[in-house]
């Protein structure tokens, strides 16, 4: 959980000035991304293909939805084969 102003408000007791910000999801971590841009802090983010790239310096493509799609397709194709063999018996 990120408290707004952590990177920009020097009067806060929780103020910190990181050298690098690494994020896992730009959609949910939009506040720290905006603050790091204001403080000229480089930002690296692990992104899906539909992630917003504004204020992100380096985006690493890790399409988590594709991994779930492949796994579910494999799981359901095995389930269908078992179901068909049960029906034929």
Automatic annotation (TrEMBL):
Alphabetical list of InterPro entries matching this protein: Ribosomal_uS2 (IPR001865), Ribosomal_uS2_CS (IPR018130), Ribosomal_uS2_euk/arc (IPR005707), Ribosomal_uS2_flav_dom_sf (IPR023591)
Claim: Ribonucleoprotein is one of the keywords in the record: yes
Keyword annotations: Ribonucleoprotein, Ribosomal protein
Keyword Ribonucleoprotein assigned: yes
GO MF annotation list: structural constituent of ribosome
GO biological process: translation
Annotated Gene Ontology cellular component terms: small ribosomal subunit
Pfam families: Ribosomal_S2 (PF00318)
Origin: domain of life: Eukaryota
Family: Belongs to the universal ribosomal protein uS2 family.
PANTHER family assigned: 40S RIBOSOMAL PROTEIN SA
Protein name: 30S ribosomal protein S2, chloroplastic
Source organism (scientific name): Aegilops tauschii subsp. strangulata (Goatgrass)
